[in-house]
């Protein structure tokens, strides 16, 4: 990319482009590492013999080496919709003060800079090779695992620790009429220089003035839409009087194009929409991703004695879900998530910045990262990193890297 083009980009977008270029340079550098060139400043550290698969030593390393690459921050539980299957319900009205939320986000960004929690691991992963690159007073550590597709950190920052933050709820545009989430989006892109900043919203409270103020800092906006039949949306709980959820979806799609934000759709497949054919509508909207979730039960949220929802009537079988997917197999942007793929493959922070462990079918919180740090809290997250990768959790999530003609044109001319 010519430097003259970078000068014309808004500051936040120029930083994102430079970050992507640094990441690719880092990948090239590591691809050359096996050549064993005697470059000044390179130091190889030999690894101990591999631990047996499934051994205590192996499990302890997996637990200790988790890096919060992609984090979902549900900073509010309040919502203006009443979706019957919601699995993150309004059990509190708490929202952290803005500066405390920023402090926690900065901790997540720094978590992988020198090992989770700020300390380089003394012992490398069994069966792996650590390479340190000395550059002045800075050291960047990266793990190349033998026979694995896994890295604890990336070289040449800023791809260290958290790379992607997704803001969700509740409804993230409720607190301070969208200003709260807008300031967090700007902070994460401008100050933390995260490669990807995204939001999941029902879309009902988003106004064009928000895009004008914060759109350049947002990579992806995901809008929840479970049906293109407004009667079904009302039945599910996505209704607000005379407002039409589907009409609003199209309006938001247009704003995303105008303000260079990648557009995504999330749909929860349940008893009331499982027979619907959405091919034509999804192809017309042309989202970068269409996430299709199987309706999931979480005890204490949408089922059980202390739940605020009764989602049992929305549940569908695995066979029903597969039939829905088969009906939409020609939609290229479809990304399916069954109950099995979804349950433990997300790093979820609640409104107190506690990781939520769903392995026992309910959300069991860790202590807050604000109190004990990321390293101590993430051990209790229940996060299944293998499933995260298997479900396609790592993808092209920065709009600077997306090969979309309309988006690239907008980025280069804005």
From TrEMBL:
<keyword id="KW-0399">Innate immunity</keyword>
<dbReference type="GO" id="GO:0005811">
    <property type="term" value="C:lipid droplet"/>
</dbReference>
<keyword id="KW-0949">S-adenosyl-L-methionine</keyword>
<keyword id="KW-0004">4Fe-4S</keyword>
<keyword id="KW-0256">Endoplasmic reticulum</keyword>
<dbReference type="InterPro" id="IPR058240">
    <property type="entry name" value="rSAM_sf"/>
</dbReference>
<feature type="domain" description="Radical SAM core">
    <location>
        <begin position="65"/>
        <end position="334"/>
    </location>
</feature>
<dbReference type="GO" id="GO:0051539">
    <property type="term" value="F:4 iron, 4 sulfur cluster binding"/>
</dbReference>
<dbReference type="GO" id="GO:0005789">
    <property type="term" value="C:endoplasmic reticulum membrane"/>
</dbReference>
<keyword id="KW-0479">Metal-binding</keyword>
<dbReference type="GO" id="GO:0051607">
    <property type="term" value="P:defense response to virus"/>
</dbReference>
<dbReference type="InterPro" id="IPR051196">
    <property type="entry name" value="RSAD2/Viperin_antiviral"/>
</dbReference>
<keyword id="KW-0408">Iron</keyword>
<protein>
    <recommendedName>
        <fullName>S-adenosylmethionine-dependent nucleotide dehydratase RSAD2</fullName>
    </recommendedName>
</protein>
<keyword id="KW-0051">Antiviral defense</keyword>
<keyword id="KW-0472">Membrane</keyword>
<dbReference type="InterPro" id="IPR006638">
    <property type="entry name" value="Elp3/MiaA/NifB-like_rSAM"/>
</dbReference>
<dbReference type="GO" id="GO:0003824">
    <property type="term" value="F:catalytic activity"/>
</dbReference>
<dbReference type="InterPro" id="IPR013785">
    <property type="entry name" value="Aldolase_TIM"/>
</dbReference>
<dbReference type="GO" id="GO:0045087">
    <property type="term" value="P:innate immune response"/>
</dbReference>
<comment type="similarity">
    <text>Belongs to the radical SAM superfamily. RSAD2 family.</text>
</comment>
<dbReference type="InterPro" id="IPR026372">
    <property type="entry name" value="RSAD2"/>
</dbReference>
<dbReference type="GO" id="GO:0046872">
    <property type="term" value="F:metal ion binding"/>
</dbReference>
<keyword id="KW-0411">Iron-sulfur</keyword>
<dbReference type="InterPro" id="IPR007197">
    <property type="entry name" value="rSAM"/>
</dbReference>
<dbReference type="Pfam" id="PF04055">
    <property type="entry name" value="Radical_SAM"/>
</dbReference>
<keyword id="KW-0391">Immunity</keyword>
